[in-house]
Amino acid sequence: MTQIVRLPQSLYWDRILKEKWRQLLSDMILTCSDYEYKLLKKIVPHKNIQLITFFYPTQMEEDENDRLKVIKQRDFSRRKNFVFLGNMAHEPNLDATKYLIKNIWPLIKKKLPFANLHIYGSNFSSDLKNDYDEGITCKGLMKEIEELGKYRVMLAPIRFGAGVKGKITDAWNEYLPVVTTPIGAEGLFLESTLQQQYEVFHSIKSTFYKDQDVKNLSPETQFKLENIQGLMNQYYEYNNKILGQKLTFGGSFDNWTDEQFADEAVKLYESEQLWTDAVDKGQKILRYRMDSKINQDWFLKAVHDTQMNLGQQRKNDIMQRLAWSETMKSTYHFAKYINEKRKNSQYMAQRKQ
What we know:
two-stranded parallel ribbon
């Protein structure tokens, strides 16, 4: 089921070169995914690369109404049906929706005849239609993200694409577990290349965590971090299915066939214990990797450190200086071209007179 879609060579290299050029021009590169963080460290090892994931308010003070809302959201019996959410103008979402309807949903519907699939999003293509006999409803735009809180399981059979999938983290934020693929789960495991740093930062109150560089972690924590990095490096080759069993995810992700995907969805839908466990794991990932206060402070620290060392960093980054020099030259020559074009237009206008 999981596959990689290849772009035409001309388009592929055009995108690669443009992205590479932007990397060379930058003073700091921000990435949301530890997979992309690791990849960029290989591609441009001399650049200042920071891993800053999404922002969710996991440490907000709760009043009685908030606590009652959480209890209601965690009530397995109050939830029903499956859901998918995505902008259909984005090719991975459109492909996932069509694949879900054609290949996976019939397998789920056969085992859960009273369950329904609700599809939310924008830019629906003409071939995405309601099929009430099969329990499929295309609902259009979701007015409030809190609507996810009425569903029991999100289905996201993402077969290609990159980056952290916001639909999955939004689902977790509404106590909704997710069934997806290894590509869909990319960058969303509790086990991150920087997980131990996150855990240390959670216990520190200083504004910029000046003393919490990786090299200053305890030997025990460094050893754990190296093991996690080794595990993630192996897993992200997408060729060892056994490793997926060691990773923590808010739902199920290690699904390589339609039958496996459907079976996992049915299990999660029917078992309150599995469902509750998946909800807890999703909440833990948000708390330990995507807390808004922690990530805000970490982002401010990254910007602060970059500003303090900017002069020396730019001096040492020869490729950045060359890239900016060429960019300025191209801008200069393009401006001259526009000016000559304007002069030519004026000249032709005068001749017609």
